[in-house]
Amino acid sequence: MKRFEILSKRMLNDNITWLVISAPLVARKAKPGQFIILRTDEYGERIPLTMAGHDSKKGTIDLIYAAVGRTTMLMDQLEVGDCFADIVGPLGKPTEMEGLKKVCVVGGGTGNALAYPLAKGMHDAGIEVDMITGFKNKDLVILQDEFKAGTDNLYLVTDDGTAGEKMFTTVKLEELIAAGNDYDEIVAVGPPIMMKFTCEIAQKHGIKSIASLTAYMIDGTGMCGGCRCNIGGEDKFVCVDGPDFDGSLVDWDELIQRSAYYSDQEKYDREHVCRLTGGVRYND
Amino acid sequence: MINLQREKNPMPEQAPDVRNKNFLEVTLGYTEEQAINEALRCVKCRKKPCMDGCPVMVKIPEFVAKVAEGEFEEAYQIISETSSLPAICGRVCPQENQCEGVCARGVKGMPVAIGRLERFVADWHAANYGDEEIKPAKGNGHKVAIVGAGPAGLACAGDLINKGYEVTVFESLHKTGGVLVYGIPQFRLPKEIVAAEVAKLEAKGVKFETDAIVGRAITVDELIKEEKFESVFIGTGAGLPSFMNIPGENLLGVVSANEYLTRINLMKAYKDEYDTPIMHPKRIAVVGGGNVAMDAARCAKRMGAEAVYVIYRRSAEEIPARAEELHHAIEEGIIFHYLTNPVQVLGDDKGNVTGIECVKMELGAPDASGRRRPIEIEGSNFVEDVDYVIMSIGTKLNKLILDTTDNLKANERGGIGTDDKAETNRPEIFAGGDAVTGAATVIKAMGAGKTAAAGIDEFLSK
Ligand SMILES: Cc1cc2nc3c(=O)[nH]c(=O)nc-3n(C[C@H](O)[C@H](O)[C@H](O)COP(=O)(O)OP(=O)(O)OC[C@H]3O[C@@H](n4cnc5c(N)ncnc54)[C@H](O)[C@@H]3O)c2cc1C
Ligand SMILES: Cc1cc2nc3c(=O)[nH]c(=O)nc-3n(C[C@H](O)[C@H](O)[C@H](O)COP(=O)(O)OP(=O)(O)OC[C@H]3O[C@@H](n4cnc5c(N)ncnc54)[C@H](O)[C@@H]3O)c2cc1C
Ligand code: SF4
Ligand code: SF4
Ligand code: FES
Ligand SMILES: [Mg+2]
């Protein structure tokens, strides 16, 4: 196996891909909730992705990513046998599970990819896991078999009702709480606005909430401060102090503002990704 | 024959209004004639004060004498006895506080341009002996791990490989060189020079593991117990950025100098073919007065800013940046607000920076550092209209290695505790550079790497 070689590639839907990659040094210590930072090639930016799984014996890690912009679209052009230039990790704190008996994990859209290792990790650790997976429509639904195997109760909802129940994840969550489910913790993984509302519901019912924040990152080791977020009035670096934080302490409006900082450049890059000839640039 | 000229031979350099639009090296280096002419200014003082000024005691009068004779390769060999990175130190040492600060010629007129000569000699060697075949040293069977590929780690690796150790360097970033590649910009220190030093070490047999973050992927104890490294050197630097904790610091357009410089230097955001996102703001405030602030300000100018302000709370006298950088920054059109301190960053309803509110300062009685303490002048607040703020007020030590290594003791600054031989409280673990001292200089880090290499050799030869 070559360094950071893609060993398998599976499209979960038009937009979301599951990769298994050789990265022994990362795999040996990986834990649920941790992430890596990768570069596609010498000209690539550094982007963070959660490890959807890992096999420390085989020395592999799993990534599930959505093609949303330049780098992830470039990743789509890589095939089995191609290699990433760089993968560093495991980064961030592993998800805390101590003392938990029953949790509800709420995943929105691509956030379900990030929620999967978390839900499965908790389930493997003997915690009772209810999982709400929410999508816009049936074409975007992913990972249902995996979630079924990795949770105790799985609920599927879509905005337009083309798969599962027609409702938002927040409504389902209210329903489950109203039905008497006694959660020790509610975990929200998805777009910031969805996490904000999910954590507000938890707060309303006096339940602890955990949100997995996706701030802009560069080094992922605490060196640049670019990922800083206001948590309970104090600046924390998401890459080393997180990515999981107590949802009631997060300054959501600031986070939402900050995570759109480069959107003009990204839009330009996205529109110009098609101009690249011959797939991912190689220079060796 | 001694050259009695009072002034240094001027350094050829790009004109200020040309260079502040490109990332090519600012200074171009002496020609052979200029170098010889400058070397002839050395009066060969018997007490060699310049050597005491150099943290690694480069044999300055001896190498300068060889330059004067036109024996450039011999000059290089003399420098190499004590310094591993002369092409780099010649460029970035704060010479005015070190070798040149105590040079006898500086009493009346300017000191001998020791830094420029050192750079000349190193560049001459690279140009004329650069493709010399390097033979791997004969192995002695001992395995040493080095954590961090900054100047401290590279110097330590160099001395150990020369002694026959099997050396592996673990670096968390995707490139080797530490601050030399992610912090100091191309126009001050071309990255090709750093890459050439690393390539030399590789040719000698040093193994580099990039993307390897020690403390997360593998701990120091695992390196020793599982990977069978007999000794470990820690040179992880002091890279955590500080912020001021003033209102508005999380607005869009406030970044640390580390972030700004990393995007530009490590990830080459100044080159079109790289994907790294970066903003191109028009009016920028850089807060701080060190080398880092100068680098950020000069990068900002080169990225197309119309106005770049350096906001520093003491006066021009106390500014800690290298004299040459300050001089170059002023020439390039950077505007300095001395005795000024930010009190808040202002923004619009979308969260974008629109200005920085500052207060004027005056200098009071000396503080613990011996420098006069700046005090706010009440009612002197004013707003500078800017759309971007770069915080460059210093860095802190990373606790990762201390937190993940069994029974490794910190020093009073929060760095890794060592004695003056770079030994920690664990006999097989050594440390040096910024990770021990907090932010310091390249030459001090390099010196610490060499001291540690000697210590490791002694430890493993027992
Ligand atoms: C800790 C963490 C874990 C993540 N895990 C996953 C995952 O498992 N699967 C997945 O699909 N996505 C994940 N993301 C999001 C992923 O990093 C972005 O989708 C990716 O960086 C987009 O890059 P792009 O160039 O393709 O798109 P762009 O068009 O450049 O960016 C689209 C959006 O992605 C975000 N983004 C862009 N660059 C970065 C960056 N350097 N750091 C952080 N966010 C950025 C921004 O919100 C941006 O608006 C994670 C993010 C973080 C911080
Ligand atoms: C912008 C800037 C400009 C400067 N200008 C000058 C100047 O002009 N002259 C001068 O003398 N000094 C200057 N300095 C200071 C000088 O660069 C530093 O003092 C010097 O680089 C310290 O060397 P070091 O080897 O101790 O650490 P660093 O250069 O910081 O290198 C440490 C390396 O260790 C790596 N690392 C950290 N943690 C881990 C880990 N857990 N596992 C693996 N790797 C790890 C880091 O990624 C880094 O590559 C400047 C500093 C900056 C930031
Ligand atoms: S290493 Fe630095 S301090 Fe020493 S002689 Fe060279 S330039 Fe001067
Ligand atoms: S102090 Fe200056 S003049 Fe004297 S030996 Fe050193 S370099 Fe030469
Ligand atoms: S990504 Fe740089 S400090 Fe978190
Ligand atoms: Mg991008």
Question: How widely separated are the two ends of chain A?
Answer: 18 Å
Name the biggest interface: A-B, 38 and 36 residues
Counted up, domains of chain A total: 2
Helix content of chain B: 25-40%
Number of continuous helical runs of chain B = 17
Order of helices and strands of chain A: EEHEEEHEEHEHEEHEHEEEHEHH
The CATH topology label of the largest domain in chain B is: FAD/NAD(P)-binding domain
Low-confidence stretches of chain B: none
Average pLDDT, all residues of chain A: 91
> What coarse outline of chain A follows from CA principal-axis ratios?
globular
How would a crystallographer describe the biggest sheet of chain B? Answer: 5 strands, parallel
> Over all CA atoms, what is the radius of gyration of chain A?
18 Å
β-strand amount of chain A: 25-35%
Tell me the number of strands of chain B.
Answer: 16
Explain what this protein looks like in three dimensions.
Chain B: GO terms for molecular function: iron-sulfur cluster binding; oxidoreductase activity. Chain B: Residues 19-127 form the Dihydroprymidine dehydrogenase domain. Chain B: InterPro entries: DPD_II, FAD/NAD-bd_sf, FAD/NAD-binding_dom, Helical_ferredxn, SudA-like. Chain B: It holds the Pfam family Pyr_redox_2. Chain B: It comes from Aminicella lysinilytica. The complex is a heterodimer of chains A (284) and B (462). Mean pLDDT of chain A is 91; it is low at 274-279. Chain A has helices at residues 24-27, 70-76, 111-124, 144-150, 169-178, 192-204, 238-241, 252-258, 263-271; strands spanning 6-11, 16-22, 35-39, 47-55, 60-66, 86-91, 102-108, 128-135, 153-158, 165-166, 185-189, 208-212, 228-231, 234-237, 244-246. Chain A folds into 2 domains: 6-91, Translation factors (Elongation Factor Tu (Ef-tu), domain 3); 102-259, Rossmann fold, CATH 3.40.50.80. Chain A is an alpha/beta fold. The longest helix of chain A is centred in the middle third of the chain and has 14 residues, at 111-124. In chain A, strand 13 (228-231) and strand 14 form a beta hairpin. Chain A is built from 9 helices and 15 strands. By secondary structure, chain B is of the alpha/beta class. Chain B folds into 3 domains: 16-129, Fumarate Reductase Iron-sulfur Protein, Chain B, domain 2, CATH 1.10.1060.10; 143-239 and 397-460, FAD/NAD(P)-binding domain, CATH 3.50.50.60; 241-395, FAD/NAD(P)-binding domain. Chain B has 17 helices and 16 strands. Chain B has helices at 16-19, 32-39, 49-53, 60-68, 72-80, 86-92, 114-129, 151-162, 179-182, 191-204, 220-225, 257-266, 291-302, 323-331, 400-404, 434-437, 442-461, and strands spanning 143-147, 166-170, 207-209, 231-234, 240-241, 254-256, 283-287, 307-311, 335-337, 340-347, 353-366, 372-376, 382-384, 388-391, 395-396, 429-431. Chain B has a 5-stranded parallel beta sheet. Chain B has a 5-stranded parallel beta sheet with strand order 6-14-7-8-9. In chain B, strand 8, helix 14 (323-331) and strand 9 (335-337) form a beta-alpha-beta unit. In chain B, helix 4 (60-68) crosses helix 7. The longest helix of chain B is centred in the last third of the chain and has 20 residues, at 442-461. The radius of gyration of chain B is 23 Å and the shape is globular. The mean pLDDT of chain B is 95. Classes of the chains: A alpha/beta (284), B alpha/beta (462). The A-B interface holds A 25-26, 28-29, 39, 43-46, 70-71, 85-91, 218-219, 221-226, 228-230, 235, 254, 257-258, 261-262, 265-266, 269 and B 172-174, 209-213, 216-218, 239-241, 243, 245, 249-250, 252, 255-256, 258-259, 262-263, 267, 273-277, 279, 350-351, 398, 400. Bound molecules: flavin-adenine dinucleotide (2 copies), iron/sulfur cluster (2 copies), FE2/S2 (inorganic) cluster and magnesium ion.
